[in-house]
Amino acid sequence: MRLISTRDAGASVASAQAFLRGIAPDGGLYVPQEYPSFSMEEISAMAGMTYRERAERVLAPYLTDYAAREIASCVAAAYGDNFGGNPAPVVRLPTCNMLELWHGPTSAFKDVALQLLPHLLTMARGKEDVSDEIMILVATSGDTGKAALSGFADVPGTHILVFYPDGGVSEAQRLQMATQMGQNVHVAAVRGNFDDTQTGVKRLFTSDEFIARQKAHGRILSSANSINFGRLVPQVVYYFSAYADLLAAGTVKPGDGVNFAVPTGNFGNILAAWYARAMGLPIARLICASNRNNVLSEFIETGCYETDRQFHLTSSPSMDILISSNLERLLFDLCGRDDALIRRWMSSLRKCGGYCIGEDRVAAMREVFYGGWADDERVSRTIAKVWREERYLLDTHTAVARAVYDDYRAETGDTTPTVIASTANPYKFPRDVLAAIEGETPDSEFACADRLEQVTGVPMPAPLRELRNLPVLHGTVCDIAQMGEIVDLLVDGERQ
Ligand SMILES: *Cc1c(COP(=O)(O)O)cnc(C)c1O
User: Fold this and answer.
1) Residue 123, C-beta contacts closer than 8 angstroms, at least 6 positions apart
2) Ligand 1 centroid to 124 CA: how many Å?
3) For a pocket test of ligand 1, which of 397, 402, 425 has the largest count of ligand atoms closer than 8 A to its C-beta?
């Protein structure tokens, strides 16, 4: 499968090249030249397969430059024993099904892609004749940093450095990163806010001087953020897997439609569901759930994307986003793969803060997508209600999706079997989850987690429990202007 850029549909690259580059040279995102397609027989056969077998099937038509045994070896390294047996179990509740995507090492759904991507990347080096090592730079406001560190730790031929805003992440998030083990992993706090940190990393990616200096040290830059096509394909797998599980459980018959509700930020997770649908998976509606930063639900309503608005900090921080980068890939499909139109919209986004896609395209989008949003108060009530009535503990992000799904059902009366993507373990956000259930919360996050476990009896994931006892290994703090030097200092010092 060759990949093209959303901003230049003419030239194509192999998937290994797309993984290494992250973003296309024209600033566009890599998308498949055409969607591979799966028959209902092929999908039904997945009901009897393990997650790893399903992953091999779904990845194969995308990774045509990888041999079957190479795909199998990447999948085994990623999912062999990192996810307690199954990376994406489906749990049945009275009104919906929960697709639990947080059984990986950092207890959030980003693990599913970030445990696989490093292995795809190291193999890509061999395929594209790259002798340099891969240097991954990440700017994080919390969760992505840890998931990326954990995925790349001790993967040969790679280095990773995560920058986060000093004082701008929670105590547990800081400790998750500061205690990460591995020969090739580095973490630095930046004196500034998240925007400063992100701008600093972007500057390094575009600095000829910095790039040349890395090259002289035998390193090329690559990115692990969610616009990398290598983050997207692993996510397509679990939509097929969820459907296969519903078939196996007898909840649906082959060909029956299923809805998915997804708590959305950068539009990566729900876009993977759109891809699964394009590949033949019988998905009826996609319910796109936002928090108070409701730019996407407004877009689905009006067809106008409008970023000139107030930014809100919410109890679902991984969805606090105003520019959902992966939306560009959906737009590309909606406009009949018209790269010139995408260039125009993206330039309007940059210069005027938004764009409108026109009524026909809105109608086409709304045939599949339903958009809604929930504020923190509603999230809190939803966590309390689902715990009280269904004895299931939601995290704040997943609760946004559940609230919006409840609205969807009330509004449409649609009783199609629905799967909600559960994107984080509740113990990742113990203060807000405990507050929803008990009202009062103790001071420290660890005390909140302990109390939550006492009150609910839901077991805390071992890595989160052990966090408080691990040695702190990373304590570098730097100014924004020093970020480039810090890369050399930490990475060149790493084998000493
Ligand atoms: C990243 C994240 C999201 C948002 O996913 P996108 O792919 O960015 O839409 C939702 N929930 C959690 C817990 C996350 O970490």
Assistant:
1) 16, 66, 70, 74
2) 26
3) 397
Q: Closest Cα to residue 107, out of 156, 71, 58, 142? A: 142
CB of 423 closer than 6 angstroms to any ligand 1 atom: yes
Pocket test for ligand 1, best of 110, 260, 324, 329 (most atoms within 8 A of CB): 110
Ligand 1 centroid to Cα of residue 423, in Å, is: 7
Tens of pLDDT along 147-168?
999 999 999 999 999 999 998 8
Interval 13-52: pLDDT, tens: 999 999 999 989 898 999 999 999 999 999 999 999 999 9
Check residue 495 and give its pLDDT: 53
Give the rounded distance of the alpha carbon of 312 from its chain centre: 20
Q: Is the CB of 318 under 6 A from ligand 1?
A: yes
How confident is the model over 105-149, as pLDDT tens digits?
Answer: 999 999 999 999 999 999 999 999 999 999 999 998 878 999 999
- Alpha-carbon span 296 to 303, nearest angstrom: 9
Ligand 1 atom index nearest CA of 266: 8
CA nearest neighbour of 125 among 233, 14, 20: 20
Beta strands 185-191 and 97-100 are: unpaired
